[in-house]
TrEMBL record:
Residues of the Solute-binding protein family 3/N-terminal domain: 3-154
Organism the protein comes from: Candidatus Limousia pullorum
Protein name: Transporter substrate-binding domain-containing protein
Lineage of the organism: Bacteria, Bacillati, Bacillota, Clostridia, Eubacteriales
Signal peptide: 1-21
Pfam family, one: SBP_bac_3
């Protein structure tokens, strides 16, 4: 009898495991941009992956757009089978794939995009100061060193350091960002760090301002700048015609492109 019971229990356990396996994510069906028609696309709300790329597939190809407050939440939904793919900027995509098993980036990409810093519409004084500082940081190699410190083979080797003797006679500037977008902005040791944070610090050091960083939802950044809650926004933000209706942008400090993340 004991032997029979043991066999029955073993069969039940096997059936249970099989049932659990049935809850795994479905097989990937997106292998190129051509496969996006009719699919459910995960995006970070307010990004160009949402408002430009995925929106176009929703309008013209029958796709469904599923919005999330951060890219990592979209990636989690992908792994769970709740979306068919995620469309997001290339460098954050690389970070998400590196830290999550079972996903990959397709070779297909979308049009290049320009990243810039946004300021309140009409604030030409601050805009001119930022553009001057950016040009100087580009010329002396600081911008490239900041980017190299987070991207590529030399990552971690060229951290930005405030020049000795820097003073801040002009008060404080507040930067709005969304710290879920590595390597441009993310949380480390309870502090917002990343390419945008370092560039903002370098600009403020040059201009004699202290820097305060406010972490918020991405879609709230432009409103924060427009209302005066923040002096500027830096968050891996692409210059678009729609955004230019609400804010002004500095000169470009880097470029990016949207990519597609899928299950392996």
């Amino acid at each position: 009898m004991k032997k029979v019971i043991s066999i029955v229990l073993a069969v039940v356990m096997c059936l249970s495991l099989a049932a659990c396996g049935g809850n795994s994510a479905p097989e990937n069906t997106v292998n190129s941009k051509e496969d996006l028609a009719g699919k459910t696309i995960g995006v970070q709300i307010g990004t160009t992956g949402d408002t430009v790329v995925a929106a176009d597939y929703a309008a013209n190809e029958g796709a469904t757009v599923s919005q999330f407050n951060s890219g990592i939440l979209a990636v989690q939904a992908l792994k769970q089978g709740k979306v068919d793919c995620v469309i997001i900027d290339e460098e954050p995509a690389k970070n998400y794939v590196a830290s999550n098993d079972g996903i990959k980036i397709l070779e297909d990409t979308f049009e290049p995009e320009d990243y810039a810093i946004c300021v309140k519409k009409g604030n030409t004084e601050l805009l001119d100061k930022f553009n001057t500082a950016l040009a100087e940081l580009e010329a002396d190699g600081t911008l490239q060193k900041i980017k190299d410190n987070y991207i590529g083979d030399n990552a971690g080797k060229t951290p930005y350091e405030t020049p000795e003797g820097t003073e801040y006679p002009n008060g404080k500037l507040v930067m709005a960002t969304n710290a879920t977008f590595p390597p441009y902005e993310f949380i480390q040791d309870n502090k917002v760090v990343g390419i945008d944070a370092d560039i903002a610090k370098a600009i403020c050091d040059k201009l004699g301002y202290e820097l305060e960083i406010l972490d918020m939802e991405f879609e709230g950044i432009i409103a924060a700048v427009d209302s005066g809650k923040a002096d500027f926004g830096a968050a891996g933000m692409t210059v678009t015609e729609e955004r230019l209706e609400s804010v002004d942008f500095t000169n470009t400090y880097t470029t990016s492109k949207n990519v597609i993340i899928v299950r392996e």
